[in-house]
Write a structure and sequence with these properties.
The structure holds two protein chains of two kinds. By secondary structure, chain A is of the alpha/beta class. Chain A has six helices and 15 strands. Chain A is globular. Chain B is of the alpha/beta class. Chain B has a seven-stranded parallel sheet with strand order 7-11-6-1-4-5-12. A five-stranded parallel sheet of chain B has the order 15-14-16-17-18. A three-stranded antiparallel sheet of chain B has the order 8-9-10, with no helix packed on it. Chain B has helices at residues 16-32, 47-50, 70-84, 95-107, 216-225, 233-237, 268-274, 291-294, 303-321, and strands at 3-6, 9-10, 13-14, 36-41, 56-60, 88-91, 111-116, 122-123, 126-132, 137-143, 148-152, 167-170, 183-189, 201-205, 228-231, 258-262, 279-284, 297-300.
């Protein structure tokens, strides 16, 4: 089984978000970048398949050379090889198009993406990629088992879960639950050393026009100070929620 | 040319998000000088959509579509958009709609923007304001394609009643066998419990609750308010509560009207998950807890005393106000 894991290079979840150049660009100053957490859950599941069922795992990122530290981390976690499509990502449509070319060239059976990246939160790449490839697709995936060419998946629905079956080839939009956080792997020294010798192939991008562009950024308006209420005066809280905030 | 919405219908009625979508689409259509068409799947009475601004409903009735199937439903929306010549297609932010929206976008060769939180900043060029960086910022996105697909964030616009009635038209879609390659085997839904996704009010507990045995008081408070229960990441990591209740950047996002946090200090990842909620109440013993910086109302106090007392007083309030 050939598995391709698509990884995004995103600001760490604790990063403070600021914008620069007249609020037209994300300010990367002092920001640590990591593998998108939703992708890391998928990567860990792929490594599980490799260890238990003999899969070959490739990671791919669409991005400039600055993303290579993130890609190397994925190799250190256990991916066999890596691909970087050498272009700065513009929008989800263009990224999906680059990834579709990689999938076609490598004839992957399973493609695992995070259901969304934690920077732009677009949630568009997995579905677009599946559509472009005419692969089967399950989003918001919190469980996956594969036997031969049959897959059984669990996806989150509003207010519950559902179990689905389908065949390979398959695109998965994964999230926490596809593995648990405690099962995520921290690269050890051996993994880090081995990662240095694994192939990281840099590919030229194909022509792909973006259909959206980020024009400007804004930060939420500053909040007024919290109104503190004495624990001995809960009637005041109820009154404020009813009369001022109008939420009860 | 009409603006098209996909109106989700479940358990005999339109979901509230479908009515919010109709209200929003009406305003967008007015700006564009056109009207609103809704496409529905196996809906029975569609008159309610008219009350929120929909002019025409395309009714798809097909037993094969009894269960949600992203690819087949995407075909429905795509074919409806093509029939109407719609340049703007709007979906909601339910798990199902977010599943099918990117497929619709590829089918229509359209740009797609999700998490849209307000009416378009401009319609020529077509620019929308959307949540990004897990609600730590907004992004003005321009859709440069001929057809535009957007998904409206939940609770971001509200309901706006309109006058008028919607006409209904049966709409036959053509579906392929490959649309049904993914099969639903079973569903597991928490019954009788408000889900975080649908909740207007969420009551959430953190490590300050000291253990899973103390969750009864969170549930009681939630019951009084008709709220969903949720928790912080450490709580789900400790298995005090299921992961499905974990709210935050890597858990579930919450866009409720009221979010009550009990014993949660307010890590940056948790705040990112609840930022879209309108009113935030924090109960914590530590006056220095970072959550107080983003809260609207705060109580510095012991949850084990405050929560039962608050529940009691809310019961009285509800009894007197219903």
């Amino acid at each position: 089984m050939k598995i391709l894991v698509c990884i995004s290079h995103v600001p760490d979840t604790t990063a403070k978000i600021n914008f620069t150049n007249g609020d037209t660009e994300f300010d990367t100053n002092g920001v640590q970048f990591v593998i998108n957490p939703n992708d890391e859950f998928g990567l860990t599941r792929a490594i599980w398949f490799k260890e238990k069922q003999g899969a070959h795992v490739t990671v791919v990122n669409v991005g400039g050379a600055d993303t290579e530290a993130t890609i190397r981390k994925a190799l250190a976690i256990g991916a066999d090889e890596a691909i970087r499509v050498n272009t700065v990502p513009t929008d989800g449509f263009a990224v999906a198009k680059q990834l579709a070319e990689v999938v076609k060239a490598g004839k992957y059976d399973v493609v695992i993406c995070g259901k969304e990246s934690l920077d732009y939160n677009g949630g568009m790449v997995p579905g677009m990629l599946a559509s472009m490839l005419s692969y089967n697709f399950v989003n918001s995936c919190v469980g996956v088992e594969i036997e031969g060419s049959n897959a059984t998946l669990v996806r989150e629905i509003d207010g519950g879960k559902e179990t689905l079956t389908t065949n390979l080839p398959l695109v998965i939009g994964g999230q926490k639950g596809i593995v648990e956080e405690k099962d995520l792997r921290i690269p050890n020294m051996r993994g880090i050393m081995t990662a240095r010798t694994k192939a990281l192939n840099v590919l030229d991008p194909v022509a792909a026009d973006a259909k959206t562009k980020a024009v400007k950024f804004e930060k939420p308006a500053p909040k007024s100070a919290v109104k503190l209420i004495s624990p001995d005066n809960l009637d005041e809280l109820i009154s404020l929620l009813h009369n001022e905030a109008k939420v009860i | 040319m009409s603006v098209l919405i996909y109106a989700e219908f479940a358990e005999g009625k339109f979901k509230k998000v479908a009515l919010e979508l109709a209200s929003y689409a009406k305003k967008v259509a007015e700006t564009l000088g056109t009207n609103v068409t809704a496409v529905t799947v196996n809906a029975t009475d569609v008159s309610e959509l008219g009350k929120y601004g929909v002019d025409k409903v395309l009714k798809v009735t097909n037993a094969k579509l009894d269960k949600f199937n992203a690819k087949a439903y995407a075909d429905v929306v795509k074919q409806a958009a093509q029939k109407e010549g719609s340049k703007v297609v709007i979906l909601s932010s339910t798990t199902d709609s977010l599943y099918l929206a990117p497929i619709v976008a590829v089918g229509l060769d359209a740009g797609y923007a999700s998490n849209v939180v307000a009416l378009p900043v401009s319609t020529n060029p077509f620019q929308v304001k959307r949540n990004a960086f897990s609600s730590k910022g907004f992004n003005i996105t321009e859709l440069t394609s001929d057809v535009k697909v957007i998904a409206l964030a939940k609770n971001s616009f509200g309901l706006a009643e309109a006058t008028g009635a919607a006409s209904a038209e049966d709409f036959a879609v053509s579906l392929n066998d490959t649309d049904f390659n993914v099969h639903i085997q079973s569903q597991e839904k928490a019954s009788g419990k408000v889900s975080i996704a649908d909740a207007e009010v969420v009551v959430s507990g953190g490590r300050g609750l000291k253990g899973p045995e103390n969750w009864g008081m969170i549930e009681e408070l939630a019951n009084v308010l008709g709220a969903a229960t949720a928790c912080s990441k450490p709580v789900s990591d400790l298995d005090w509560r299921p992961h499905s209740e974990h709210v935050g950047q890597t858990g579930k996002p919450v866009a409720s009207n009221l979010y009550i946090a009990v014993g949660i200090s307010g890590a940056i990842q948790h705040i990112a998950g609840i930022n879209a909620s309108k009113v935030k109440v924090v109960i914590n013993t530590d006056p220095e807890a970072p959550f107080f910086k983003v809260a609207d109302y705060g109580i510095v106090g012991d949850a084990f005393q405050v929560v039962p007392e608050l529940t009691k007083k809310l019961k009285e309030f509800k009894a007197n106000n219903n």
